[in-house]
Amino acid sequence: MSEFGTEIAARVARTTRSLAAARAEQDDYLVSVLYGELESLARVAHDHDVVVPGLRESLGKHGESSEVHLPDETVEPTTVDLTGVEATGASERVQRIA
To answer: CA-based angle 54:57:61, to the nearest 5?
Structure first.
C-alpha cells in the first residue's frame, strides 16, 4: 500500500476508535462530527482507489445508511499494521461551543 493509502487507513482507524469512544460517552454531537469525518475519509479513499479493510463495516456500524461509494473490496487488500497508532480522546477532538 502506498504511503497515502497507509495514512488514510491510519486516519480511518483513529476516527473509528474516537467514534466508538464518543458513542460510549453518549455524545451525540461528537458522534455526528466523527461520522462525517469517516464519510469524508471514505470519499477520499474511493476517489483514489484506496481499499481500507473494515471501512464499509465501520460506516455501517456507526451510522445510518451511507451514500458513500467505496472501492471494490474484492480486490486483495494490503494489510496495514496499525499497532502504535494512538487514538485521540473523544473529548479532545471537538470542543463544544457553549
So the answer is: 135
SS (H, E, C) 64-82: CCCCCCCCCCCCCCCCCCC
Over residues 43-68, mean pLDDT: 77
**How far is 74 from 79, CA to CA, in rounded Å?**
14
Look at the alpha carbons of 61, 67, 71, 75 in this order and tell me if their dihedral is positive or negative: positive
Does this model's pTM top 0.70? My answer is no
The CA angle 11-39-27, to the nearest 5 degrees, is 85
How far apart are alpha carbons 72 and 87 in whole angstroms? 27
